[in-house]
Amino acid sequence: MNIENKQFFQDEQLIRVVPAERYEMKPDEQHYITKELTKVKLDDDIGEIWTYPALHLFHGKISEKIVKDVIEHCTNTNNDDASGKLVANIEGPQSYLDADHPLMKEFVDIMMRSACIFVDQCMMTNPSWEQAQPRRIEIQEIWDVKMKPGDYNPLHIHGTKAMQGLSSICYLKVPDGLHQAEEEGVMNPKYNYAAKIDGWLKFLWGIPDHYKFDEFACPTGTHILPKVGDYYIFPKSLNHEVYPFRDNEDRWSVQINFNCWEEGKDGNEY
Prior knowledge:
Blueprint: E1 2-4, H1 5-12, H2 27-34, E2 38-41, E3 48-51, E4 58-61, H3 64-77, E5 94-96, H4 105-125, E6 135-147, E7 153-156, E8 165-173, H5 176-184, H6 193-196, E9 201-204, E10 221-224, E11 230-235, E12 239-242, E13 251-262
Antiparallel strand pairs: 1-6, 2-3, 4-11, 5-6, 6-13, 7-12, 8-11, 8-13, 9-10, 9-12
Helix pairs in contact: 1-4
């Protein structure tokens, strides 16, 4: 399963972002347009605050119908053939899925399109990619993770055959308790702070220790509350983990690793 992302975008006639230097922007437009640098001018022209981004994430949502189709395929597969190769410390099964199965078609099409958009936007806004060749996006592997109460996934990154790669996660089932804790908040005696983020996904892109002591430092991580149908695409090298949870329901997700092949270098980039 692969798509030439350059041709993909030409066929879809997507509008590309206009480079920032072509027109004067308001400060609140700067980050949205360039994805590179936010400059906020201060009163009395004493100077500017410059803020650099640390991370690009793609967030999207699939329909209930697609969620049901993928759940059906996961339920029918359920052979636990991926557990031996993954780092997750879970009792529930982890199975490789068939990206070409009819039940997976709509899901895979959306994920491929989203990955192509992610790559296209990064290529336009990252100066180091100015001379880069077009990328061909290919699914290397796709698998499910069926976490049971008490299961967790330790801090890790993903790998791909291509030097440049992406990973993704999409939520199929989420215990109600995760949302109840978030909604009721830490003041409810039933939930302490640790319980409030039970089962959440954490992304970590820097060294967190200094942040606790330095008021001027920017955050080096973020927590994501899982919601059914939500998906995220991110660089394969991004550290992430999943906290354990206490509930009576399982937490299901589907993951994909994408190869981003540079033209003419399939299988020979390292």
